[in-house]
Design brief:
- α1 links the parallel β1 and β2.
- α3 packs antiparallel against α4 and α3 runs antiparallel to α7.
- Helices cover about 30% and strands about 15% of the residues.
- It has one domain.
- The protein has eight helices and eight strands; from the N terminus they run βαβββαααβαβαβααβ.
- The protein has a six-stranded mixed β-sheet with strand order 5-2-1-6-7-8. The protein has a two-stranded antiparallel ribbon with strand order 3-4.
- The chain is of the alpha/beta class.
């Protein structure tokens, strides 16, 4: 079983889904300190005039004194209206606006949801379903993993992989310096890093902005085009000696 482990992000960029596509199972990592104003409660879409604009999830307790699993959505109905409103300018120009509008409504349909982790997982699920990507996930805070306390940033992944019986782990290439390949090798876990080439696409009369939320990608491209792009842009790399922490 090849495992991916990432924090619960709000409608993340295409590379996040490329990582999901490269794994057999996924752990939503929500047991460490919450960090406000990150991709966990906001992302970017095109602005109706120029540049980009945030779509965000206001929280009732946005503070570093809580764990990510404890982050609570202030008002999901208000958040849904705000996000849909900020996407409405796509209606006249983006060919897949209606499909994306329905995806967002489906992800944010249950007003009883107040846990940010659960909201973000629903977002991942509806997008994966739309793209036909298997999404075999577990939420870390809901597992009895009995992990060691005070692990360093690079220590969580090998510990979780080992506890869950994973044979391999994949991480975005940007985080490779965090990990010691020997830590994985000693547990008989293969380690790979995903390099993802950004996908450039036609955005009509808007100027293209790289690295936006998956919502923008889906506005302009068919599901098959998106799947082809995430597979074509993904390259799995082995660790090298210089990746070991000094």
């Amino acid at each position: 079983m090849k495992l991916g482990i990432m924090q619960p992000y709000f409608f993340p960029y295409l590379g996040h889904f490329a990582l999901i596509a490269c794994t057999d199972a996924w752990v939503v990592f929500d047991i460490t300190q919450y960090t406000p104003k990150t991709w966990m409660n906001r992302n970017r879409v095109l602005h109706p005039k120029e540049g980009w604009n945030y779509v965000s999830v206001p929280l009732s307790n946005s503070t570093i004194s809580i764990k990510t699993s404890e982050a609570r959505v202030l008002n999901l109905a208000d958040t849904r209206r705000s996000v849909l409103g900020k996407l409405s300018h796509y209606r006249q120009k983006a060919p897949y606006y209606r499909a994306v509008d329905e995806l967002v409504k489906a992800a944010m349909a249950d007003d009883t949801i107040d846990q940010l982790t659960h909201l973000n997982v629903r977002g991942l699920r509806v997008v994966c379903d739309y793209l036909g990507l298997p999404f075999n996930y577990r939420i870390c805070s809901e597992l009895d993993l009995r992990l060691p306390e005070k692990l360093p940033p690079g220590g969580w992944a090998p510990a979780i992989c080992s506890t869950l019986g994973a044979s391999g782990y994949v991480n975005p290439v940007g985080g490779q310096a965090l990990f010691d390949p020997d830590d994985f090798a000693s547990r008989n876990i293969s380690l790979e890093f995903l390099s993802f080439e950004h996908f450039t696409y036609d955005t009509g009369t808007y100027q293209f902005e790289p690295g936006l939320s998956i919502l923008d990608v889906l506005m302009w491209n068919s599901p098959q085009t998106v799947v082809d792009a995430l597979r074509a842009g993904a390259t799995l790399l082995p660790p090298t000696a210089r990746n070991s922490p000094q």
